[in-house]
Write a sequence for this structure.
């Protein structure tokens, strides 16, 4: 029986998409202080977004209530 080695990736015709994968290791990982700062920013944005959603829902509920009230023709 003959033993044949597996060919190198990308050596048989078309180039392999996995051959040129590089990982970005040139930048150091962020420090704990930087991560904490980012988390605070994200938390602030989340709180603002929640407040905006609640305000929009309240406004939509208010408009819905106004539209459902019967109005007389004399009032218009």
């Amino acid at each position: 029986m003959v033993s044949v080695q597996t060919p190198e990736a990308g050596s048989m015709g078309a180039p392999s998409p996995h051959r040129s994968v590089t990982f970005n290791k040139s930048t150091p990982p962020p420090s704990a202080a930087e991560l904490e700062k980012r988390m605070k920013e994200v938390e602030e944005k989340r709180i603002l977004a929640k407040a905006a959603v609640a305000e929009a829902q309240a406004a939509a509920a208010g408009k819905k209530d106004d539209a459902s009230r019967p109005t007389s023709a004399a009032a218009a």
